[in-house]
Amino acid sequence: MAEKRGALQIGEVAQRTGVTQRTLRFYEEKGLLHPPSRMDGGFRLYSEEDVQRVEHIRRLQDLLGISLADIKEMVDADEVLRELRSQYRPESAITEKRKQLEKATAVTEAQFAIVKQKMEQMREMETQLTERLRLFTRWKQELDELEKKAAPTRG
Questions:
Q1: Which helix H or strand E contains 132, and what residues bound it?
Q2: What whole-number distance in Å separates Cα of residue 141 and Cα of residue 147?
Q3: What is the pLDDT of residues 31-42, one digit of tens each?
Q4: Does the reported pTM lie above 0.85?
Q5: Structural domain count, the chain
């Protein structure tokens, strides 16, 4: 059997991450997850890194509410950053280090732009909801006044 040590099957990953097995397959189809290795019987085997990636995807969805396409860009950017870190060696030439840092900066700036855009959208939504609540409060007060005027007076 081609089972790897510490590898998890799809059901275990689904349970640990709180997503369905179908969601894991969907993430794989959309390129959010790399195709997992497989056992001799064809069962998918996921690594701890895959689990962390799924958890990161879920956090991005929950926190930012962004599309899977945007999440894919961010997750891919994280992978590029990890790759750059692993390639960054103190003995590398200054020009090579500069290229790596410029690439890492561009990736991080792209991620930052997505987050800033979502935060601005959230602020706009907060303003709209605040105004709506103020309007509803005013309407309730107006209804209370009408109710008082319509109530029969005792005397």
A1: helix 94-150
A2: 10
A3: 889 888 888 888
A4: no
A5: 1
